[in-house]
Amino acid sequence: MSNSTLLQVIDLYVNYRVVRKFTDITSRVRSAVAGVNFTLSEGETLGVVGGSGSGKTTLLKTIVGVLKPSKGEVIYRGVNVHNAKGELKKKIMAEIGYVPQEPSQSLDPRMKISSSVTEPLRALGVGKSDRYERARYILKVVGLSEEVLELYPRDLSIGMLQRVAIARALITKPKLVLLDEPTSSLDISTQAQILNFLREMKEVFNLSYIIVTHDISVASYLSERLAVMSHGTTIEEGSVDEVLNEPLHPYTRVLIEASKLKEIEESLEEASAGCPFINLCTFKTDVCFKKPPPQIAIGMRRVKCWRYSSK
Amino acid sequence: MGITLNYVVRRIVLSIAIILGISIITYVFIYLAPGDPAYVWAGRPRGPLASEAIARARVELGLDQPIYVQFFLHVLRFFSGNWGLSIRFKQSVFSLVMRNFASTLELLLVSFAISIPIGLFLGIHSSLYRGSKIDAAINSLSIVLSNTPRFWIGLAMLLAFTSLNIPTYGRISDNFRGELVERVGLYLVDSLLQGRLDIFLDVLIRIIPPALALSLYPIGAIARVTRISLSEALQEEFVREAVSLGLPRNTVVYGYALRGLIPSLMQAIGLFFSYSLIDAMAVEYVFGREGLGNLLVKAIPASDFPLVTAALIIVAIVYVVTNTIADIVQALINPRVTM
Amino acid sequence: MDSLALSINAWRKRVTFRIGLVITIAILLAGVAGGLFPLIYGWDIGFRIVSESFQPPSLKHLFGTDDLGRDMFTRVLMGTSRALVQTTIVIVLSLFIGLFVGAITAYYKGFIEKALSYITELFLAIPSILLALVFVILFGRGALTVSLALVASWWSWYGRFAYLQARAIRDLDFIVLAKHYGLPGVYIILRHIVPNIMSPIFIQALTDAGSVVIELATINFLVGVGTTSIEEPDWGLMLGYGVRYVFNYWWIPLLPGLFIVLMALGFALIGDSIYEEMHPQLKRRWRLWF
Amino acid sequence: MVLEASIKSTDLSIGYEYDYGILWVVNSVNIVVWRNTTYCIIGESGCGKSTLGNALAGLLPTYAYTNGYLEIEGRTVVRGDETNYNGVRGRIVTRIPQDPSSALNPYATIGEQLVKVIEHHYGVRENALEKARELLKLVKLPLEVIDYYPHELSGGMKQRAAIALALAPMPKVIVADEPTSNLDAYLRGVVASLLKRVQRELNLTLVFITHDIALTSVICDYIAVMYAGTIVEEGVSSKVLHNPLHPYTQLLFKAIPKLGYRETLSTIPGSPPSPTSYPEGCRFRPRCPVGFSECYKAPKLIEVKPQHKVSCWRYA
Which chains does B contact via 3+ CB–CB distances below 8 A? Predict the structure, then answer.
């Protein structure tokens, strides 16, 4: 049972329109997410690593159903998240929790913590006393005292706010929690507290996480699988050990080197019509300049690079 | 690739739609107005032939048509400048309104020529010295200025100037009235075109007091808007960056902080301009100047509805046009505009 | 709770707030007095001829007497209560309508947003005086009609303000999440959007009360449609009627105007001080980094 | 080689005006930064490192209060409560901002911004454009960027443009205030390497402020660790990184997740104190696992090993 598929993301595209200058008559379509594929088993955690502008926040928001994909599907336990209606939709919403990036923005500054935390239950139609009981319980689980319920966000430190945001995601007893940069606005000492806490929660509730972060060490601390994201697509995906020990893609390699504190070669940043990572690559061939690489599966791993296409 | 309508085009289409909306309201207004327009059109006939004359007028005016045809005709007439005849003045409403509007516009332009530099100066300095006594003084002054009824100050000024024997009543001295050749409609320009400096001075002296009274509100309002938005802009990171690069104070304030504010300030000034129209009408009335205000005061007791609506539509159109221009300029200046 | 703390701070630190409060309280007292006059002295107190006409201001007649010999001060006080009631109606109703229309405009993206923001724009463009005339034709002359006409024009101002404020917060995570949980739009607008946008708009409305007074006075000054007869003790009307006497009996048009100034100023000073308290970047003594 | 001091501070304290007096956020800082070296200041948010950086770059607002001395390249910029950065700001010291997307002027192209700065400092109109191109080449940006507006650039490119802008007045000292937060590991490494290369090529003094401890080992010669407004440890980077002495530094280094490291992270109990309620004596005392009675007195920063100073009673 524990090996069954929980979430499947199939060839996901999310487009948006841009007008470069106001004098432009036409708008161009750009993809924030361009062809993402992965499968997540129950109890498994996926770390998505990517810099700002790589489309990782858009990916999370699409998986959770806030944004609509232009193409592709998100399948949660055999149900397409974006087509679900009525009770089924509510059930899926309850089973997928979402923790946004900025804890200070994810809670209404004019609302008591108790109301904010119980909001998902209110949407599910849970009665008031049940809601509060559940809120008290969940706050105890995340290690906050009951008094917090009567406070407003401005009374709490940013680390506590993050705990409250996580508590809200956990209140509906989800199976899968999506975390958007859970530690990027925290201090180092608070970051360690939250990371340990997330691990603990995972064991207590048998959760799956999808963690999106720009810090590869944070991702590898919490995850079993790792996906490296850039230019809107996952350029490499595999188990943490495989990816860290034997990176296939040149970008993954420099990411790991940079994290191992080696001085790295600078390069011009220029996207070409073909592979965007030409400048990083020592194996480039003619085809790399012409066409963007396809996704290639090697065992349980996937990589987007022409180098492996012949194998 | 999707086709987007150009922002400028969209803005213009929107403003035309708004003017159309206003014309609908005016139509409702005239339609609801007491009295029979056909009766008025036929020249208030009496006697045995009256009903026939009214019937003829009804056909002429298209009042026998169904309501939507009438409305269509109304819109058509509206956009072709045929706004009917004034009941009180027995003249074409369009030309009457336009002539008077020129006078109001002249007053407004002079008052904004006074208030824009003063308001900007006060606002910029208030924000540069914010928290100080200068700032407190300027801020209090602008609150007082923008909360004094303009027509009341105008009245006080009229009294003061007249007791000093400075002629301020009316738009132009009666002696010159016949001598001025109207070309543009703005007397200040016309007199200069004619090369008559004496007329120009006479017109100028008469326009300054009402323009001053009228400029109180925009001075205060522009100063306040400038102060608040410049204070915010000076907090911005790129202004700090300019400071850290050792650029001189004037470059930082005018070249960096203020440059980004030009579009929003223009928009605000456009708004104040259209708001001031009603004030201008009241001030005009006080100073006995011809203009939309005096027209309105005479037209309302006479139930001259075509004239009243036309005069007010001008106000609405000025509002729409100034705002459209300000929006378009904003889009032209600001490279960040997104849709 | 927040606004109370702000007001206390404003009282402690700002002379302008104290001046504004004193003026406003004085005007309120004048309004109460003006409202009580007819109850005490009979319904015709404002119209009663008490003295010779055109008496200059004196201790007996503080603001002098008008062309018919009525006491101007009594009439001005009665005008105060009238103006206060009218201003309250205009501000409260337009604030209410504007706040909700703005919040709805921003919350429902797409067609509703476009349509409502165009409608707001349209009402912004229509001069209030035109709406006043339309309303007078529809419902007859009178103070209430003109107040409602002013509401019909004034709400659009708050509608746009609220829309801009709400647009800035509608994509914040807590609103996106609430929407995602499937909470109804009414709940989100009432619990999340309105509470987060209202305080700057409330302060704006407080500051605007002065403009409403002036606008009402201007309309009545020009066309007098806010009154049912020329006898009514309305500020704008009194001034408009008095204009003809400005050269000979200056107190008739000029003195009632003082009250308009005071009332507008009182509200504006209070609103402005609270605004300053809310924006620390305006408060700090600060001369760039030079 | 004789080391010359580029930045020298003596008992430098910086505070801000707030409702109930002055809030001192930086307390008695004594540092010496040698010329042509890279000096890192690390610490958690709210420890005063950005305020210290602003003091170095001459960006303290006028409602800030100062105490002590600060000398930059032989010019006294802070003496007691007087500050004077005239001729220092820009000419001698510039700053690389934290968030380049808000620090670049959104209304002007990159070229216009560079030319404006070069013209103001060196006044050569014809050469200014040439100089701007050289700067872009130095930071490895494509030359067509000169005609781009900031919003048309990617995050990494904006940061390079901001670095070019900071180099434009040809300063001797550069203060980089967390220039890499929000970039991924690769871009972070790229920006750090770029800064290091520029520092070497142009013989600059670089003050690098960061909370990213991993990055410091790549580029820093000296490291100062700040906690609650004071410097608790300072020294040559290899010594501080590999053999930290202060209990705070030791705990902090253990709290950072390392690549491939899966054991439970150790944490520092509690949270950093706020400037309104600094504890008496050693400010780390309430959270310190090895504190003792001496710690109720404020410790001094003393050299306990060659080129390695620490402020802790255990080494006194």
Answer: A, C, D
Q: What are phi and psi of C210, to 5 degrees?
A: -60, -45
What are the CA-CA distances from residue D119 to residues A124, B239, D114, D129 (Å)? 64, 18, 9, 9
Taking the Cβ of residue A306 and every Cβ of chain D, the question of whether any pair is shorter than 8 Å is answered with no
Closest approach of B149 to chain C, Cα-based (Å): 6
Q: Per-residue pLDDT tens for B197-248?
A: 888 999 999 999 999 999 999 999 999 999 999 988 888 889 988 988 988 8
Flag whether pLDDT at A11 surpasses 60.
yes
D61 to chain C nearest CA, in Å? 6
| Binary contact (B1, A19; C-beta < 8 A) | no
pLDDT at C138 over 80: no
Tell me how crowded residue B103 is: count the other CB atoms within 10 A of its CB: 24
List the single residue in B129, B231, B320 with the smallest CB-CB distance to C125.
B320
**Tens digit of each residue's pLDDT (9 = 90 or more) over B317-328:** 887 888 888 777
Contacts of A27 in chain B (CB under 8 A): 1-4
Domains and CATH numbers, chain D: 5-92+174-184+200-315 (3.40.50.300), 103-170 (no CATH)
pLDDT digits (tens, 9 = 90+) for D58-103: 888 878 889 999 999 989 999 988 888 888 888 899 999 888 888 8
Dihedral sign for Cα A125, A129, A134, A139, please: positive
Residue B11 with chain A: CB contacts under 8 Å: none
Q: Indicate yes or no: CB of A107 within 8 angstroms of CB of C174.
A: yes
Domains of chain A: 5-17+29-246 (3.40.50.300), 247-311 (no CATH)
Structure token pair of residue B131: 């928290």
- Classify domain B93-301 by CATH number: 1.10.3720.10
Domain segments of chain B: what residues?
Answer: 1-88+305-339, 93-301
Q: What is the rounded CA–CA span in Å between residue B6 and residue B14?
A: 12
Q: Considering its fold, how many domains does chain C have in total? A: 1
ipTM of the complex: 0.85
Angle between helices B93-128 and B187-194 (to 10 degrees): 100
Amino acid at B88: R
